[in-house]
Structures are given as structure tokens and as C-alpha cells.
Amino acid sequence: MDRNLALEFVRVTEAAAIEANAWVGKGDKKAADKAATEAMRSRFNSVDINGTVVIGEGERDEAPMLYIGEKVGSGKGMEIDIAVDPIEGTNSVAFGYPNSIAVFAAGPRGTLLHAPDMYMNKIAVGPKAANAGIHLDKSVKENVEAVANALGKPASEVTVIVLDRPRHEQIIKEIREAGAKVRLISDGDVAGAIAPCLHDSGVDMLMGIGAAPEGVIATTAVKCFGGFFQGRLAPKDDAERERAKSMGVDPDKLLEMEDLAKGDSLQFAATGIVEGPILKGVTESAHGVQTHSLVMRSKTKTIRFIETHHHVK
């Protein structure tokens, strides 16, 4: 895809983050999400793409904005798949917790998996451990030791980021039994998957179960860094298993990065809303507000951190 689109895409996430910031700590998830989604959709209209949302706010009847299958962009450019989450970490925004971003991923038509809205078991590491033999079907101890060896440090210095959920009690126990540290986050496992790719994040690996659509978005980012990601759907019942099959996804298949986000023409953008392990949040500046964003292309492995000062009337 055109490299100039990358900066257009980051303007989309910036707009969503700024609008979401007005709702930080106010306890209204729906209002925050609505504001961010409307801002993102409006900004898309000025981008010369013929985009189709493959991962968005849900089905059309459930989400009047940025629904799956919606067309976005001016319609003048190339055909691309769009995966968006106007607020990844809605609870963090609503209740003032750390770690929330506005996030966007894109690739040529047919490159992003149309992931069903259900859980996915995930594991992710950064580029230094990408070839260490990490595998979703290995034990926690084996994966911790593999990461430790790849990074040249003892298991006691490995940090694993995990969503703070009751379903993760066992995995948290096993991480600690392996001698590693656990960093719990309330929401936002896209940022959690990206964090091991950043040497100064203090995070070495992501483990656990989160939303499947976010797994596709995270894979796009991890791929741009040269890291490693694996996933497998975790349907909660037969109905979800059948839904996955109806969307062309084998619920039992181990999903490698090429299954989730194909090729080397992927782009990713994210803007911090509330500070987390990869980005600072929206802050006040002399002009109005200041945003911190990350924008990447998989083809060149170009990684840009962008600090923008927005004049707000």
C-alpha cells in the first residue's frame, strides 16, 4: 500500500483518541465509544481508499457505526481490508484505568482474517524471541524458559503480561511457578501483545485469552516489528463453534501470523488515550492537546513514534 497512507491512518486514530479523552473517568463507556467511533468514521471520509471494515464494532444491526462490512474512505483508492477499534480498553477510558488506545490495521483486500467475535487463546513475543520456539501448545514453563534463553537473562527476570481475569488464575500461577514476573492489565491486550516488541516496555511476553478480533489487529502490529504471535479460537459453546465455521475459520486450528494477517503490505496505527505500556495518553499542551502515536508498515519494518500538538478552539 502507498506509504503516504500511513500518516493518513494515524490522523484517524488521533481523532478518535482526542474525542475519547473527553470521557476519561466519567463512567460512561457507551458515550466514550460513540464519540471515538464517530470521530474515526468522519476522518475516514477524507482518506482516498476503497476500504471495507472486516473487524469493527460488530454486526450492522448491533453497531450503527463502523460495522463489519461497512465501506469507508472516499472510494477513490485501492481496495483494502480495515480492522479498527476506536477504543481498545473502553473500561480504562470510562473508569480512568491505565492502558487504552485508538487502533487501526489495514491490508490489501483478503489479507486480514475475518475473525468471529469470540475469545482467542494468544501468545506473543518480540523480535529477539521470535525464533526461540515459542508455541501455544507448550507449557508455560517451557515458553518462559525459551524467552529467557533468547533474551539472555534468567527466568526470574522475564515479565509476562496477562489480562486480569478469573479465567487466568491457573496461567498466572504457572507463570509464577516458572519463576517469572506477572504484569496484570485490566484491559487492552492489543497493547499487551505489542509491548514485548518494545525494548523499554518492561514486558517480554503476552499470554492468555482475549478477544479474537483484537488478535488480528495485534498480529498486524507484531508482524511489523518482526515479532511472533500465535492464536487459537476459544469458543465458549457449540453455537460459537458453528459461527466460526460459518465464517470459514476452523475453531481448533492453530492460527499462525500468516493465517491472521497475510503478506508484507500491512499497515498499523495507534494513538494513546490513557497511558499504557506502549504509548502515552492524550495530554494538554500549549496549543490544546498533545497526542502520542505509533505508525508502522510491515514491508519496510518502518516504525514511527509521532508526537502531535493539536490546536483545539
Number of strands: 13
User: Whole-Å distance between the termini?
Assistant: 34 Å
Kindly report the average pLDDT value: 93
Strand content bin: 25-35%
Low-confidence stretches: none
Along the chain, the helix and strand elements come as: HHEEEHEEHEHEHEHEHHEEEE
The rounded Rg comes to 18 Å
- Helix percentage range: 25-40%
Structural class call reads alpha+beta
Q: Total number of helical segments?
A: 9
Give the overall shape.
globular
Largest sheet: 8 strands, mixed
Polypeptide structure, described:
The chain has helices spanning 5-21, 29-44, 90-95, 140-151, 169-177, 189-194, 212-225, 238-246, 257-260, and strands spanning 50-55, 71-72, 79-88, 100-108, 119-125, 159-163, 181-185, 205-211, 228-233, 267-274, 283-284, 288-297, 302-311. It is built from nine helices and 13 strands. Helix 1 (5-21) packs antiparallel against helix 2 (29-44). With 313 residues, the chain is of the alpha+beta class. 30% of the residues lie in helices and 28% in strands. The strands form two sheets. Strands 1, 2, 3, 4, 10, 11, 12 and 13 form an eight-stranded mixed sheet that branches. Strands 7-6-8-5-9 form a five-stranded mixed sheet, with helices on both faces.
Topology:
Layout: H1 5-21, H2 29-44, E1 50-55, E2 71-72, E3 79-88, H3 90-95, E4 100-108, E5 119-125, H4 140-151, E6 159-163, H5 169-177, E7 181-185, H6 189-194, E8 205-211, H7 212-225, E9 228-233, H8 238-246, H9 257-260, E10 267-274, E11 283-284, E12 288-297, E13 302-311
Parallel strand pairs: 1-3, 6-7, 6-8
Antiparallel strand pairs: 1-2, 3-4, 4-10, 5-8, 5-9, 10-12, 11-12, 12-13
Helix pairs in contact: 1-2
